[in-house]
Amino acid sequence: MRLRRFRAPFPAPARAVGAAAAATLLTLTACTPQAPLVDDPYNEIIERASGGTPLPPEARYEKADTRPANLPDGAATPPSPTPATGPVEERLPDIIDRGRIIVGVDQSLNLLGFRDASTGELAGFEVALAQEIARDIFDDPDAVEFRYVDSTERIEALSSGRVDAIVRTMSLTPEREAVVDFSAPYLTARAGILVPASGSVDETDEISSAADLNDRRVCVAAESTPEEIVRAEAPGATLLLVRSWSDCLVAIQQHQVDAVVADDTILAGINDQDPGTTIVRRGLSTESYAVGVADGNVALAAQVNLTMERIRADGTWQQLYDTWLGAFLPGGQQPVGIYREEDR
């Protein structure tokens, strides 16, 4: 709470009482920390140095060199099931009987999956993609139930049956391929670095490359590829490991980190929310996002791939991309799916 000074309109006989009350207040405030009376950069510096601003929930600092990096090995991703044909009722009887498909998304990734404050509804590129999948199953884009899934919970949510599919910045890696089935990719992402915009930090603090992250504090989502990139490229950095990328926006605004390393699709959302930031580097890695389904659920993966090819042919994918990401990452194109023949 910010206190404001004002001149008390005491009548003359009451001023002694007012002075005594003020003295008592000063005594109490000497014992209890109070909000500053004015905006003062020195107050902010003292608060930061003393750790006055709490970290996001469950976030923690960790030195990047506490363990070796576990980067994807670069192996080619296996082909995805061929797009489905035939009656969907025969392919997905349980989902049809339920009357909706259950999809795990994020609700705080601006531009990708977030809750629109003006409508209270989920919106974004990945939310719209899930609706297109529902459209091809039920002929109704609203026949989808969204469930929030943390980035560390995606595989468990699929294996436990809590969701039918995950549409939440889930990149294709050989490790995940071993426990999850994937659709063809729907988006290409390139890891990059986001920092406060020029002029908001000292020139000596400028960051423009991965090597510049050494001796800096860097926000990444726990168990993400960007975490491994920082461990590999800047072992002298200090990681702030968070559960959600939206926590990185708060952390950089609170000066708890010097940079955020994430996919450019995620950085675009942060930059949109806070124009006081800027993306200074892209291309630290290139990955593909795909829809994840439970291991062995080839029928659903094939159904999703049917949607992938339909939105390519009718221009829906490009429309969604231009609407949500085009202004920040121009020139995006739908990845080409590589399919295999198999029984469904």
Give the ordered list of helices and strands: HHEEHHEEEEHEHEHEEHEHEHEHHE
Structure class: alpha/beta
| Main beta-sheet annotation | 9 strands, mixed
Overall shape: it is globular
In angstroms, what separates the terminal alpha carbons?
A: 62 Å
Properties at a glance:
344 residues, alpha/beta, nine-stranded mixed sheet, three-stranded antiparallel sheet, disordered N terminus, Polar amino acid transport system substrate-binding protein, Solute-binding_3/MltF_N
Describe what this molecule looks like in 3D.
The protein is 33% helix and 22% strand. It has helices at 15-31, 41-49, 88-91, 93-98, 125-138, 154-159, 174-177, 225-233, 245-253, 264-273, 298-313, 316-324; strands at residues 60-63, 80-81, 101-105, 108-109, 113-115, 122-123, 144-148, 165-166, 180-196, 217-221, 238-242, 259-263, 277-294, 339-340. A nine-stranded mixed β-sheet has the order 1-11-10-12-9-13-8-3-7, with helices on both faces. Strands 4-5-6 form a three-stranded antiparallel β-sheet. A hairpin with a 3-residue loop joins strand 4 and strand 5. Mean pLDDT is 85; it is low at 1-51 and 200-204.
Task: List the topology elements.
Layout: H1 15-31, H2 41-49, E1 60-63, E2 80-81, H3 88-91, H4 93-98, E3 101-105, E4 108-109, E5 113-115, E6 122-123, H5 125-138, E7 144-148, H6 154-159, E8 165-166, H7 174-177, E9 180-196, E10 217-221, H8 225-233, E11 238-242, H9 245-253, E12 259-263, H10 264-273, E13 277-294, H11 298-313, H12 316-324, E14 339-340
Parallel strand pairs: 2-14, 3-7, 3-8, 10-11, 10-12
Antiparallel strand pairs: 1-11, 4-5, 5-6, 8-13, 9-12, 9-13
Helix pairs in contact: 5-11
